[in-house]
Amino acid sequence: MKRSREHLVPLADQVIEHLKQIKEVTGYSKFVFPNSRDASKPISKNVMTNRLRDLGYSANVVSAHGFRSSASTILHEKGWNHEVIEAQLAHLTGTATSRAYNRSIYLIERRKMMQEWADYLFEISTFKL
């Protein structure tokens, strides 16, 4: 986690199923997505962006980090609490003083939000005209 801060990530049911399937392929490593040259290390932070380029998406169209922006925007549009979204994205909010007193991680709300997010992604990925 960035800056060595712990970050708990609630997983939607669909994510758990996908992780079980991925484990069949990459279970030899402690990482879900191991480095292809050294399984004791995770993939590079650039791998996802490189795969998008391989698929033909240019840098001015999409980036891996852009998915976080899209998620934030859509979740805000869907009415989710700003603090809950920011906590899910591991963003620090408020002043240093307010963070010292309020250490809420909104785990119950984040679990619900991530399940709704996974359901939404499934719905739009299976949409048929």
Give keywords.
single chain, 2 domains, mainly alpha, 51% helix, globular, 129 residues
Please describe what this structure looks like.
This protein is 51% helix and 0% strand. The protein is globular and about 45 Å long. The protein has helices spanning 13-26, 47-54, 66-77, 82-88, 96-101, 107-125. With 129 residues, it is mainly α. The protein folds into two domains: 13-64, no CATH class; 65-129, no CATH class. The model has no long low-confidence stretch (mean pLDDT 91). Helix 4 packs across helix 6 (107-125).
Helix-and-strand structural type: mainly alpha
Shape: globular
Distance between the termini: 40 Å
Low-confidence stretches: none
How many helices does DSSP assign? 6
> How many domains is the backbone divided into?
2
Strand portion: under 5%
Mean pLDDT across residues: 91
Portion of residues within helices = 40-55%
The helix-strand sequence is HHHHHH
How many individual β-strands? 0
Taking the sheet with the most strands, its summary is: none
Query: How would you classify the quaternary structure?
Result: single chain
Radius of gyration: 17 Å
